[in-house]
Hints:
The complex is a heterodimer. Chain A has strands spanning 5-7, 10-13, 19-24, 31-38, 42-50, 53-57, 64-68, 74-78, 87-94, 104-105, 109-113. By secondary structure, chain A is mainly beta. In chain A, strand 7 (64-68) and strand 8 (74-78) form a beta hairpin. Chain B has strands spanning 4-5, 11-14, 19-25, 32-38, 45-50, 54-58, 61-66, 71-76, 85-92, 97-99, 103-108. In chain B, 0% of the residues lie in helices and 55% in strands. In chain B, a hairpin with a 2-residue loop joins strand 6 and strand 7. In chain B, the strands form two sheets. In chain B, strands 2, 4, 5, 9, 10 and 11 form a six-stranded mixed sheet that branches. Chain B has a five-stranded antiparallel sheet with strand order 1-3-8-7-6, with no helix packed on it.
Amino acid sequence: KAGVTQTPRYLIKTRGQQVTLSCSPISGHRSVSWYQQTPGQGLQFLFEYFSETQRNKGNFPGRFSGRQFSNSRSEMNVSTLELGDSALYLCASTSRTGDTGELFFGEGSRLTVL
Amino acid sequence: QKEVEQNSGPLSVPEGAIASLNCTYSDRGSQSFFWYRQYSGKSPELIMFIYSNGDKEDGRFTAQLNKASQYVSLLIRDSQPSDSATYLCAVLGYSTLTFGKGTMLLVSP
Lengths: 114, 109
């Protein structure tokens, strides 16, 4: 069974640009969550999608957005990039339909903003 | 602001010893508690979860929960060099999973 797949794995952008990250969950998993990981702040919750609907959202500015498609694949977008957006962005999926912490993480997309 | 606190470490133990990792949380209404392991350069992987007060054992790992003290711990018996990683405590509150910043564990041969 394939795991959570994230693309691209690495990317470099400049301030002011935008970026789109993609996540394909484990087959059959309908919930997808996104996290930002930095050395200083650790893992911080961005948002969670279930059946194409955003169920929860973390405390990030509106520059961070996401969506989920009917096949459960998800994308997140960051507009007007800032230096502080440099981080590892992790996607996680779960087969649970309710609130759970039993997540399967992808390898992440490492974003560097110059 | 829901908080999950962990000592950043590193916690250094010799091979074969018991490693004890601790975590406190601020949200008294939290119901579920999770331990993730993250190797350097890798993504987190779930190793244990606990929902009820007391101990839960899985192989060399034991999770302990004390809701009255808002305290969760992970014991690793017979520690191996392959256990060297960062251990993340995560707490599920109202619909949101909050992670601690993790404790780095170093197991020396």
